[in-house]
Write a structure and sequence with these properties.
Rossmann fold; 7-stranded mixed β-sheet; alpha/beta; two-stranded antiparallel sheet
């Protein structure tokens, strides 16, 4: 199956069963949102460490930062993203999801957002405002900006599966920013898994193992 031309340049990795299943088969899917300064080749590298039945979509953020380096919104002050730019990025993601559902054999009831850093922030914020569109969120080294007043869909957010992983030695997005996000999600009644690791602003084999177990549970 070929990669389609959509609004965001992206990579696609199909599960091994593609080609052996009925053409109408829909697949559980990971939409991977990379962090500041990265690109579409980054998070899709986690695929070998997570359940193989997944279809992966890894888009490139639309704003050029440098050679092979992109971002979802411009960063002027670390920890204080501009609300209008965040809203624009969320609209970009929402439109891209519309395209994906038409272009690829995605099970719309099993579409998971997986983000790191800036992509983690957007994954959580998108789920707060569009919970019916995603099956769950994997948020790595991110946080929910408290200064932005999101229109949270609390009704559909209740019991939505989230997993948050964060390094206690993270100096880029300190753990002190992640814990209030954990508390907010708990107050909103999501099905939350939260775990801290002895690491910095990164992903580890230990954190991926926890995420893999969580995903297996979600997929059944």
């Amino acid at each position: 199956m070929e990669t389609k031309q959509l609004s965001l340049h992206h990579l696609v990795q199909f599960p091994p069963s593609v080609g052996t299943q009925e053409s109408k088969t829909l697949y559980p899917t990971i939409l991977a949102l990379h962090g500041l300064g990265s690109n579409e080749h980054d998070l899709i590298g986690f695929a070998p460490h997570l359940p193989e039945k997944l279809l992966w979509i890894s888009p490139r953020a639309p704003l050029l930062l440098g050679p092979n380096s992109y971002e979802w919104y411009r960063v002027k002050i670390i920890g204080k993203p501009d609300p209008e730019q965040v809203a624009s990025a969320l609209e970009t993601i929402d439109h891209f999801i519309d395209e994906l559902l038409s272009a690829y054999p995605i099970d719309p009831q099993k579409l998971f957002l997986l983000g790191f850093s800036q992509g983690s922030l957007l994954s959580m914020c998108y789920a707060l405002t569009h919970p019916s569109r995603v099956a769950g969120v994997i948020a790595q080294s991110g946080y929910i900006p408290s200064h932005i007043n999101f229109e949270i869909d609390a009704t559909h957010l209740k019991n939505k599966p989230f997993i948050l992983t964060h390094g206690v030695q993270d100096t880029m997005i300190p753990i002190e920013w992640a814990r209030p996000s954990r508390d907010l999600l708990q107050r909103l009644g999501v099905d939350l898994t939260y775990q801290e690791f002895q690491m910095g602003h990164r992903v580890s084999m230990d954190s991926l193992e926890v995420i893999s177990l969580w995903l297996k549970k979600q997929l059944g």
